[in-house]
Design a protein that fits this description.
Layout: H1 6-17, E1 33-37, H2 43-51, E2 56-60, H3 63-66, H4 75-90, E3 94-98, H5 106-109, H6 135-151, E4 159-161, H7 190-194, E5 216-217, E6 220-221, H8 224-251, E7 257-262, H9 269-277, H10 296-306, E8 311-315, H11 321-327, H12 340-343, H13 356-366, E9 370-374, H14 392-405, E10 410-413, H15 416-419, H16 428-437
Parallel strand pairs: 1-2, 1-10, 2-3, 3-4, 4-7, 7-8, 8-9, 9-10
Antiparallel strand pairs: 5-6
């Protein structure tokens, strides 16, 4: 693979030498910044990545390590996190901190109404928390986020990620977490259904006791308008929850960017119409977006309005399985175009043929939100990759071209470990070669 040429190396490394300690992604960039996810900030890795022209580190915190008991942080875990973040910052990296809320302590899981519940009363297989509707876990989260801002050099961070899912992303659990396939809905805990012990800013269901897919409620027929209102409440609750997390960060003194890790493309407009017309019985749900509450068409403008301060969408679908399928079409439908924001909601546009990245990027553009991205990572149970994803080396080769075509302000490779372990078959030189060859 070719290494970074002098001109590109100067352009990339130059980010390290400019005056701003925490460059923002809110402004458009002519060239994406490049980096890694799950950075250890180890000195030898930072040196190798600096030589490769990488300037961005996503560093993950871990709630269970930082707060193993309520009311206080563990001093050793705080020191470790602060040192890790500090090493990256002192090396001139832009640092985006993942809050690690997908790793809750056991005492949080034991709180009243802590776990999400579907219409069958089942909790997610991952034990996903109800950080959307339930007051007790939400209060624990607010306390954690407040302490987290104080534990790190927050004024030097470029961004902090917030999320609601067991993957740390926007959304409710996916189909693989229910045991029942696509048709699972995660708003059947007591707070969402009764309004008791409801998280701040949330509202109880507009149709108490109604289960999507059933034709009657309280002795009357359910209409498509009812189903649409219910789904709007369900997906809109995610916006309220994310805005609430951002407000806590702001109150704690964090003034940087709030990053929103966003999976997939969300429900397509035509599919939403089918879904509400069939009372959310499972029709129109191509990939589990409905159950996960992912309505990017409505949510991204709402997030731009509701989340205080600078907001950046992090699209985690760069070269995912949908890109593999979209580029195999004739003509290919995987690459973003300047017209996508305008054409994505035109009912004559075959957006079902587009890659997830392309459609979601169009919605962020419609909302005027800055966008960064990352690839799903190697296929496996603990990553975003699935069996028909590209292998990781192919993701490394293709993702930089997608980042440029879609105008991403930054691209971070999932995961740093895979660049520095021989068993992955991926090296920093592969990443650099992909960056230069796609320019």
């Amino acid at each position: 693979m070719r290494r970074v040429g002098p001109a590109l190396a100067v352009a990339l490394v130059g980010v390290l030498l400019t005056g701003a300690a925490c460059p923002s992604y809110a402004a458009p960039a002519a060239e994406p910044a490049w980096g890694v996810v799950d950075s250890t900030c180890a000195p030898d890795r930072l040196a190798a990545q600096r030589d490769a022209g990488l300037t961005v580190s996503v560093v993950e915190a871990y709630w269970d390590r930082l707060q193993p008991v309520p009311g206080a942080f563990d001093p050793g875990a705080v020191a470790e996190l602060a040192a890790r973040v500090g090493r990256c910052l002192d090396a001139g990296r832009r640092v985006v901190l993942g809050t690690g809320t997908q790793y809750p302590p056991s005492w949080v899981r034991a709180l009243p109404d802590a776990l999400l519940r579907d219409q069958r009363g089942a909790a997610p297989r991952t034990g996903g928390l109800d950080l959307v509707f339930a007051a007790a876990p939400r209060a624990a989260l607010d306390d954690y986020l407040t302490r987290l801002v104080a534990a790190v050099p927050a004024a030097r961070l470029t961004g902090i990620r917030v999320g609601t899912s067991a993957a740390g992303e926007i959304g409710y659990p996916g189909p693989q977490e229910s045991g029942y396939g696509l048709n699972s809905w995660w708003a059947f805990g007591a707070p969402a259904q009764t309004g008791a012990d409801l998280a701040p800013g949330q509202a109880r269901t507009p149709l108490p006791g109604w289960v999507p897919g059933t034709a009657a409620w309280q002795g009357r027929a359910v209409t498509a308008a009812d189903a649409s209102r219910w789904f709007g409440w369900y997906s809109g609750a995610l916006v309220t929850a994310l805005a609430g997390q951002a407000t806590v960060l702001r109150a704690a003194g964090f003034a940087g960017e709030v990053h929103l890790p966003t999976a997939g493309r969300g429900v397509l407009p035509a599919d939403r119409s089918v879904a509400v017309g069939t009372l959310l019985d499972g029709h129109g749900d191509r990939d589990g977006s409905l159950g996960r509450g992912l309505d990017h068409v409505a949510a991204m403008p709402a997030l731009a309005e509701a989340v205080p301060g600078a907001v950046v969408v992090d699209l985690t679908s760069v070269d995912d399985a949908s890109a593999v399928r979209a580029r195999a079409l004739d003509p290919p439908e995987d690459l973003c175009t300047p017209e996508d924001a305008a054409t994505s909601l035109d009912p004559t546009t075959r957006v079902e043929r587009w890659s997830n990245l392309r459609f979601a990027r169009a919605q962020a553009a419609r909302a005027g939100l800055a966008v960064v991205g990352e690839n799903p990572g190697p296929p496996g149970g603990t990553t975003g990759g699935v069996p028909d994803s590209d292998p990781e080396i192919e993701q490394v080769r293709r993702a930089p071209a997608y980042a440029r075509a879609c105008g991403l302000a930054a691209f971070t490779l999932a995961f740093e470990e895979d660049l520095h372990t021989p068993r992955s078959g991926v090296t920093p030189a592969d990443y650099v070669g992909a960056i230069t060859s796609s320019a």
